Amino acid sequence: MATAIKMPRQGQSVETCIIGEWYKKVGDQVKVGDILFSYETDKASFEEEAKEDGELLAIFFKEGDEVPVLTNVAVLGKSGETIDEIGQGSEGEATPFISEKTARLGRTSPNEENKDAVLIEKQEGKVKISPLAKVMAEKQGISYDKIKGSGPHGRIIAQDIKMAAESLSKMRPWPQERAKEEELTFPEATIDNSGCFSYDNLTTYNPVYGDDFEVRKLTNIRKHIARAMQQSLQNSAQLTHHMSADVRKIIALRKFYKKKMESGEISQNITINDLVCFAVIRALRKFPQVNIQLIGDSMRWFKKIHLGLAVDTERGLMVPVVKNADDLSIEGLSSQLSNVAAQCRKGSIDTELLKPEAASFTVSNLGNYGVEFFTPIINLPQIAILGVNTIIKRPAEMEDGTLGFLPFIGLSLTYDHRALDGGTATLFLKEIKYEIENLSIIMIYN
Predict the structure, then answer these.
(1) 244 pLDDT tier (thresholds 50, 70, 90)
(2) Are strands 298-301 and 45-49 parallel, antiparallel or unpaired?
(3) How far apart are alpha carbons 34 and 256 in whole angstroms?
(4) pLDDT tens for residues 248-295?
């Protein structure tokens, strides 16, 4: 019996996913473990593997389609097997790509009625439209709030958008005549919000000049990042303090651990960032009023330190969390930080670890990029974030009173002034500076 392949659910809060790429096409033979397709939520990307052997009999959604979770996206079965008993996608609106073998057995794509879209006055209130139809409308620049839906309860479905695109793409008679008279051409154009083309669209064709740009839709994760950054700035009173810390001792510790790793005494490569994070955890223990979240009129005080780390990936910025970071040794902390960063870059991170509510404080390090100072944005509902900058040698007084050039690391603390006063924020930043400048083997293991 043919088996439906469903869009997986990644976390309780995820309602839809976007199909990234199909690695198999209809008619291909599939073995257990083969990657069928990739998909992404608003936080991460994933790949769906085949759970059994068989032939890919049908695919219900194309690359780029937004699909509700647990919806049938494809069918896997034996060659020539019928798929009549398996629903086609969401509410029957997705047209499957049927294999030739299946088609010869009488299973073909449903015939589409050739008619024009029904246009109405702009709808009042929330427009009922399926996720797939909404994506199609946005891609084609169609204002769907003026289209009468043919789906259940007047819902706009994919077929309505397709018909609207075909109807509205027809050039009105009078522009055709005017174009012919003035020897103008009508190139491909984007349908405007009214669904009509105007004379302004008629342009003389000049092959010398072409578009020097291309339009690309924001990825799902980029949309999420954009919303989160905008909401953070709009819904909090953010202020940033800058300070520098002498990192001679941390650099010495880094060399010490590097030798231990090379000699085989430890297996973890402990970095400057790991040591800075360790110092931050020590400072948070002394300033528990920074290790909180502000939710409405209430503050959530954490008894443990859940450290978030900003990670740059090909898909965008992700902030995974290391739970109970204050219980970890320097080797354990380094291992956990490198593990969650690697999982983010591979797209295999647990989405629960990416929720802003999962962390109590976040560190964002741009030192490797040579950034001297920057203003990090708080990951709400947290109330603070530390930006770590590059190391720069600056003139400073040595212990013997002489002047020399010492390595300093820039620290940028952004905090929510609604929850934290400037004096407390400054004292906390000074504590981080102190911990960095005085970190030693004795402090680490005590």
Answers:
(1) very high
(2) unpaired
(3) 45
(4) 999 999 999 999 999 999 999 999 999 999 999 999 999 999 999 999
> What is the average pLDDT score of the chain?
81
User: Residue 47: what residue type?
Assistant: E
**CATH code, residues 3-104:** 2.40.50.100
Asked if 71 and 59 touch (Cβ cutoff 8 Å), the reply is no
* Separation of alpha carbons 128 and 97, rounded Å: 26
Helix axes 272-286, 330-346, angle to 10 degrees: 110
CA distance 95 to 105: 18
Q: φ and ψ at 203, to 5 degrees? A: -135, 150
pLDDT of residue 101: 42
* pLDDT per residue as tens digits for the range 75-85: 998 887 877 76
First-last CA distance in the chain: 62
Find the radius of gyration of the CA atoms of the chain: 29
- Residues, the chain: 446
Residue with tokens 């690391």: 409
Q: Which helix (H) or strand (E) holds 168?
A: helix 158-168
Q: Are 54 and 34 in contact (CB under 8 A)?
A: no
CA angle, 418 then 422 then 424, to 5°: 100
Which regions of 23-155 does DSSP assign to beta strands (E)?
29-30, 35-40, 45-49, 54-59, 66-68, 72-77, 97-98
Give the pair of three-digit tokens for residue 129.
Answer: 């439209």
The 10s digit of each residue's pLDDT in 28-47 is 999 988 899 988 876 677 88
For the chain, the farthest-separated pair of C-alpha atoms sits apart, in whole angstroms, at 92
Structure tokens at 209: 């000049």
Where exactly are the structural domains of the chain?
3-104, 113-217, 221-444
Overall fold of domain 221-444: Chloramphenicol Acetyltransferase (3.30.559)
Beta strand pairing status for 35-40 and 238-246?
unpaired
Q: Is 70 exceeded by the pLDDT of residue 52?
A: yes
Residue pointed to by tokens 């380094």: 334
Pair 148, 77: CB distance under 8 Å: no
Give counts: helices (H), strands (E), the chain.
10, 19
Output the six-digit token pair for 434. 């102190």
Closest CA relative to residue 138, chosen from 226, 68, 65, 76: 65
pLDDT in tens, 162-195: 788 776 544 445 555 555 565 554 443 444 444 4
Q: How far apart are CA 274 and CA 181, in angstroms?
A: 72
